[in-house]
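Aim 2 progress. For Fatty acid desaturase domain-containing protein, the working sequence is reproduced below.
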Amino acid sequence: MLGNRRASGSSDHLQDLCLILGDKMTPNLTGTGTGLLLAEAEVVTEQKPISRKPLPQTKTPVKPTGPKYEWHIVWRNVLAFAYLHTGALYGMYLVFTQAKLATCFYVLFVSWYSGMGITAGAHRLWAHKCYKANAALRLLLAFCNSSAFQNHIYEWVRDHRVHHKFTDTDADPHNSNRGFFFSHMGWLLVRKHGDVRHKGKAIDMSDLEKDWVVMFQKNFYPILMPICTFVIPTMVPVYLWGEDGWTAWYVAAVMRYTLVLHGTWLVNSAAHMWGTRPYDKFISPVENVYVGVLAFGEGWHNYHHAFPWDYKTSEFSGYSANATTAFIDFFAWLGWAYDLKTVKAEMIEKRAIRTGDGSHPADKQNTNKDHRHGIEGEIWGWDDKDLTDKDREMMSIINPKEEKTE
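Predicted structure tokens for this construct:
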């Protein structure tokens, strides 16, 4: 049985965190305040378009050519992150000194399913339309996504599509040209650049607006998020195996949530800086196996930006560094996921030969090292109107089914 001090302490900390995070969880296209992870990047005055050169094979910092940006810090987010990281460190201490073994395994389980809500759900299903899912799987992924607290699906998808269309420009919410810290988490501590909001309005979101699961989660996110992210992970260890309330809060809720955040953030930072570019050396994303493991298969980022509609986000079919592909394949076996899109080997080899950095086996035949193309205006996914019919013909569809309305 829990002591009154421990039980009440857990409740008090939950109430305190909710007060810090705030209650405005709607999309931030207008620049108004939003929740903790709604990226409010810097606001600047009108400026002339910046002429951008293709990235060289070895990534080098790009010096800004426009007027100096005026950053506006969102202090509420700074305080919230300070609490989360302090609490996460304390949670790590409790893991080795007080937490029960069952709680430690439970943390791994919650980390996995909340991560799937981002990678298999918001990212591969809804942002890139890499596959289709029936209502049951979409509901499951919406619950998992609500447990990750990285904005509701609609907001996450809109910002991610903007990221792909305008990678490493002012319209990119986590522009990696501004350094590791900014692209990792700094973009969440300052207000959004005006181009993010302006160009975000032009992104087609009609497909998500027709999905009742996405809109239900969006409308009830202020209720679903705290329950799924903090209440359930805290209460399950307390009531199922008698974990101390204080320990459950800091280990299963605060520490677990913070670590999952960093796993996701590495895709925006490390996977744009350190690694190879076998498919396109003129863009910043790289192949990074360590990010692949920590982010459940999202580390094959050069491939992903070259072919954003491939449900594997990788040329490889193995699961060792791509847990999300295993998740999707399992539900395809059940019949819940269908129309899985993947790129034919011929198209991959042609792209590697044409624009790769020489690290891909097919690039040994590369005789066109001087090819260039822009990094702005890339494809965000399968339903992007700029995706050519020729590219669509180079796709393979796994587990195809007739279109369903659910």
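The longest strand covers residues 340-343. This observation will guide construct design in the next reporting period.
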